[in-house]
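Justification of resources, computational component.

The compute hours requested in this renewal are based largely on the per-chain cost of generating structure records like the one below. Each record pairs the submitted sequence with a full structure-token output. That output is archived, and it is also reused by downstream analysis tasks.
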Amino acid sequence: MKGYATPSSPFARKVRMAQIETGQEKLIEWQMLTREERAKLVPSINPLGKVPCVVLDSGEALYDSPVICAWVDAQDGKHRLIPDSGHERWRVLTMEALGDGLGEAVVAVALEQGKAEGERSQALIDRQTGKVKSALAALDRSASGFHDPLTVGEIAVACAMGYMEYRKVAAGWRENCPALAAWYNGLASRPSFARTLPA
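The structure output for this chain reads:
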């Protein structure tokens, strides 16, 4: 299987962490793309032009991160990232959606802040920053119930926060979210987290 990603994508990192957490690090062979390479190559695989995307040995394409993580989880892994049924399944998938939403808001803020001053929309930055703060507050309230081993929900949250730190969005969040900060700090020595840092 061949996967396509950019080195800093929190959503591609999510799939790479899922591989490691399930003991399947070699399941997908990743090709890291520049923005220019992504623009040329990815639309022929994913019509939305987004990474991550994976081409299976059959030639079939999978996208984006929730689908690919579910596919990874369905292979012969060390442990399941998504419970098969019951309340816990929906709790984990809802946390994944919250983590992905946090990641999307952080990406939007980072992209807007990267624009020249006259081209920036402060209203967009404020709106997306509000989503970031709201998501972090909700996660701080639930951090004591996070799983170890990780589920796909915690993985999505970890990757969004890693990108948030990488792009220096939401300065001061640790003081406002001490339970979440303690959990996040504990991830530093985890192989799946340490081996997939954004670059």
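The longest strand covers residues 2-5. The chain has nine helices and four strands.
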